[in-house]
Write a structure and sequence with these properties.
Blueprint: E1 11-17, H1 20-32, H2 38-47, H3 53-63, H4 67-76, E2 80-85, H5 95-115, E3 120-122, E4 124-125, H6 131-143, E5 150-152, H7 167-176, E6 180-182, H8 206-220, H9 223-226, E7 232-234, H10 245-257, H11 271-277, E8 279-282, H12 289-299, E9 304-305, H13 318-323, H14 329-344
Parallel strand pairs: 1-2, 2-3, 4-5, 5-6, 6-7, 7-8, 8-9
């Protein structure tokens, strides 16, 4: 990267990590068959057990919260990384185990932030299937550990957060004014079968389908009417949703007008209004100028942020590619730094 001084720091806002204990537990579940998630079996059956350089390199990078990660950031020109627990995180375990692992992983990542306060910030992991305990952990993680928000790796064993049982988590996020990052997971057990034979279940397509579905469920369920100050973050430029805004509004209005489904009730605003006003977007894995500028145009330049998606998509030259965006210096600074600082209070 160039040594030319910049008027901003580059903050990467979706950078994955994983503690060694969790990775070991995942491998054990794969080996003893004690899970019923075909998407997990497909994704982590490769990364957790394959001897290929791609898999072994990724597992090593995920666990590093020190010199190697910092060196990779320096090589790419990333000044600060917002760390978040990789999918499926703690959500594959029973509620009690999941909460214990969430607490210990939050302590571990907070310690890394303390060691490198100018290079790292982090989000707190929670267990959506233990919502009351998760709400308490969010308060501890924010107020005691100094974490900057919450990471949820989409569905939890096929369970989605539009269920009111989960709303204690939204209430805690809203009360503390911290965002919830809805990160992808592989398609839920109910929808995974057509994806897996062609290896379409993960980042190539399945992540976007599954997480876009989850986000729309939250909108249509009225979560943002119930929690109007809730801040949601979507990666990968919104999992395709910004491209669909017009059609989502049109079809939703027809479903409501014709009372087509008991699960779809009138909302206070159009679905696209929530996607513009309650949701922020990162470009993780999508360092592509046409898509970034489209998202900035239809969503707002104050809602789109840089992310690399390290280590899954670590390309040191990527930052230079994104630096060539045809936007003003002010918008470029918003994209790389100030939007993230404002949202995550960095």
């Amino acid at each position: 990267m160039s040594d030319t001084p910049r008027p901003y720091r580059r903050i990467a806002t979706e950078e994955a990590w994983a503690p060694a204990e969790m990775l070991q537990r995942w491998v054990k579940m794969l080996e003893d068959g004690s899970h019923n998630d075909p998407g997990f079996g497909s994704l982590w059956g490769f990364f957790g057990r394959s001897p290929t350089p791609r898999a072994r390199d990724l597992v090593a990078r995920l666990q590093d919260l020190g010199d190697r990660r910092l060196a990779d950031m320096d090589a790419a020109g990333v000044d600060m990384a917002l760390l978040s627990l990789t999918c499926p995180g703690v959500q594959l375990f029973d509620p009690d185990t999941a909460m214990q692992l969430a607490i210990s992983s939050n302590d571990e990542v907070a310690a890394a932030v303390r060691r490198h306060p100018t290079r790292f910030a982090a989000l707190a992991a929670v267990a959506p299937h233990a919502p009351e305990a998760s709400a308490r952990e969010i308060e501890r993680a924010v107020n005691t550990l100094g974490l900057k928000g919450v990471i949820v790796n989409s569905h939890t064993q096929g369970f989605y957060m539009d269920d009111p049982k989960c709303w204690a988590i939204f209430e805690a996020c809203e009360a503390l004014d911290v965002p919830l990052y809805l990160h992808p997971n592989t398609p839920s057990p109910q929808m995974a079968a057509p994806f897996i034979p062609r290896c379409l279940d993960a980042a190539i397509y399945g992540f976007a389908v599954e997480t876009g579905l989850h986000a729309l469920r939250l909108v249509v369920a009225g979560v943002f009417d119930r929690f109007p100050k809730l801040k949601l973050v979507l990666g990968h430029l919104g999992e395709g949703l910004p491209y669909w805004l017009y059609r989502i509004d049109f079809m939703h209005a027809g479903i409501v007008a014709n009372n087509r489904s008991p699960g779809v009730k009138p909302l206070a605003r159009k679905p696209s209004d929530y996607l513009r006003e309650n949701v922020w977007y990162t470009c993780s894995g999508m360092p592509w100028e046409p898509a970034i500028t489209f998202c900035q145009h239809v969503i707002g330049q104050d809602r789109v942020m840089y992310a690399m998606d390290y280590p899954y998509q670590y390309v040191p030259d990527e930052v230079g590619m994104v630096e060539r965006l045809f936007v003003s210096p002010q918008v470029k600074r918003m994209f790389f730094e100030t939007n993230a600082r404002a949202l995550f209070k960095i």
